[in-house]
Write a structure and sequence with these properties.
The structure holds two protein chains of two kinds.
Chain A (H helix, E strand, L loop, with lengths): L4 E3 L2 E5 L4 E6 L5 E9 L6 E6 L5 E4 L2 E6 L4 E6 L8 E9 L7 E2 L3 E6 L1
Parallel strand pairs in A: 2-11
Antiparallel strand pairs in A: 1-3, 3-8, 4-5, 4-9, 6-7, 7-8, 9-10, 9-11
Chain B lengths: L4 E3 L2 E4 L5 E6 L6 E7 L6 E7 L2 E5 L6 E5 L5 E5 L8 E8 L11 E2 L3 E5 L1
Parallel strand pairs in B: 2-11
Antiparallel strand pairs in B: 1-3, 3-8, 4-5, 4-9, 5-6, 7-8, 9-10, 9-11
């Protein structure tokens, strides 16, 4: 069983503050690491697919880094806005079962004005 | 470009019945995956189909099955429903053709199944 862990489980952020959270995954047999944002009553939306150690990706105020050797990825939100409130999910793809996404439980982010 | 479409959106079934859920992927996507989310649980992988073949399988009992048609549309079937099968079932499509292709998944809005 492959464990994908996310921490913290939830966090509250003041509007304008920056925040970050972690996804841990197995460091062996890595294929890809995905980040998704899931807003209430909507579908999960892809943020990033990361495949190379040292990868850094950015979309607007959200960015992510990847360390495949130690098995972790960070997601950063700069200058949080209320519309950033969502559950952020990471998903690990194993080299021998690519196409199968193993999700962490998510980090729920609440941004208060 | 139309997104991933799941039908029905909501369903109420009785214990012991069987149910079929449908998923139409984004045009051109050949991989369809199914996930279950129950309260307090993350998204649990059920199975993935590519070109009408099951390519990956999760750890669910044999009551859960699926198939994919030549137009990439997929169905998921659950037989002998149990109360614990009450969940949100999400399907996702991706290009999924080879290792070098981006496996970014596009999700449907899900089917909310309630078993009473």
């Amino acid at each position: 069983i492959l464990n994908v862990e996310q921490s913290p489980q939830s966090l509250h952020v003041q509007e304008g503050d920056s925040t970050n959270f972690t996804c841990s995954f197995p460091s062996s047999n890595f294929y890809a690491l995905h980040w998704y944002r899931w807003e209430t009553a909507k579908s999960p939306e892809a943020l990033f697919v990361m495949t190379l150690n040292g990868d850094e990706k950015k979309k607007g105020r959200i960015s992510a880094t990847l360390n495949t050797k130690e098995g972790y990825s960070y997601l950063y939100i700069k200058g949080s806005q209320p519309e950033d409130s969502a559950t952020y999910l990471c998903a690990f793809e194993h080299r021998d079962s690519w196409g199968k996404l193993q999700f962490g439980a998510g980090t729920q982010v609440v941004v208060t004005p | 470009k139309a997104g991933v479409t799941q039908t029905p959106r909501y369903l109420i079934k009785t214990r012991g019945q069987q149910v079929t859920l449908s998923c139409s992927p984004i045009s051109g996507h050949r991989s369809v995956s199914w996930y279950q989310q129950t309260p307090g649980q993350g998204l649990q992988f059920l199975f993935e189909y590519f070109s009408e073949t099951q390519r990956n399988k999760g750890n669910f009992p044999g009551r859960f099955s699926g198939r994919q048609f030549s137009n990439s549309r997929s169905e998921m079937n659950v037989s002998t429903l149990e109360l614990g099968d009450s969940a949100l079932y999400l399907c996702a499509s991706s290009l999924g053709g080879s290792r070098t292709m981006n496996t970014e998944a596009f999700f449907g809005q899900g089917t909310r199944l309630t078993v009473v």
